């Protein structure tokens, strides 16, 4: 990597202050979004190289941190595009392999499982809120959109996350109910039998209640 071109002393001081105030947060931002910690270090290094070259564009005060998040986001996007181009041939070759690579383990919590079902944009938006604890103005700076757009997209992303959580809960309820129904079936393979609450009579699944049983 070539050495950065020289800058006036005041710019060097600005860059040093920027690094000291943001590098930990930037590393946390990157390490949560890449597969290997070494990749996160590369993202941070590249992001600060961009910041050095564009030191005059770095906002002052608290806006510097979300600005750096935006730089890191673009660095990772560029890296992913490069990786996709590099891996195109490998992907074609993998189609001919007979060994199947095991899929990654399921997320450990329902929230993570639901989050994984959302689009990349929804995931990033919700992570900026939950992980980086950014305000809407800061998120707008990271994503390069208006504060109003952040508000609308965040509302929709939270709604979609809630829907996915509900879908997971319903699926788990079905998984629990199915074994219970099988255990209730008799050994002849007929439909499960059940007892009516008022008199304890055994009724089939389709048996009609006696007249007046519900009014009693």
TrEMBL record:
Coiled coil: none annotated. Residues 18-86 form the RNA polymerase sigma-70 region domain. Residues 187-216 are annotated as: Disordered. CDD domains: Sigma70_r4. Keywords: Sigma factor, Transcription, Transcription regulation. SUPFAM superfamilies: Sigma2 domain of RNA polymerase sigma factors, Sigma3 and sigma4 domains of RNA polymerase sigma factors. The keyword Transcription regulation applies. The keyword Chloroplast does not apply. It comes from the Bacteria. Residues 111-161 form the RNA polymerase sigma factor 70 region 4 type domain. Belongs to the sigma-70 factor family. ECF subfamily. This is RNA polymerase sigma factor. It comes from Promicromonospora aerolata. The lineage of its organism: Bacteria, Bacillati, Actinomycetota, Actinomycetes, Micrococcales.
């Amino acid at each position: 990597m070539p050495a950065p071109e020289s800058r006036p002393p005041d710019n060097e001081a600005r860059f040093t202050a920027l690094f000291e105030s943001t590098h930990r947060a930037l590393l946390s931002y990157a390490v949560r979004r890449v597969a290997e910690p070494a990749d996160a270090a590369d993202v941070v290094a590249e992001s600060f190289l961009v910041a050095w070259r564009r030191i005059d564009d770095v906002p002052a005060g608290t806006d510097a941190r979300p600005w750096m998040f935006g730089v890191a986001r673009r660095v990772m996007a560029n890296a992913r595009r490069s990786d996709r181009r590099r891996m195109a041939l490998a992907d074609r070759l993998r189609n001919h392999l007979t060994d199947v690579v095991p899929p990654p383990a399921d997320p450990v919590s329902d929230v993570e499982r639901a989050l994984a079902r959302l689009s990349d944009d929804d995931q990033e938006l919700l992570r900026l809120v939950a992980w980086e604890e950014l305000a809407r103005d800061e998120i707008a700076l990271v994503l390069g959109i208006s504060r109003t757009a952040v508000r609308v997209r965040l509302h929709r992303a939270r709604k979609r996350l809630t829907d996915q959580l509900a879908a997971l809960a319903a699926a788990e309820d079905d998984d629990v109910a199915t074994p219970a129904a099988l255990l209730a079936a008799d050994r002849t393979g007929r439909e499960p039998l059940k007892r009516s609450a008022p008199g304890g009579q055994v009724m089939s699944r389709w048996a009609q209640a006696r007249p007046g049983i519900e009014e009693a």
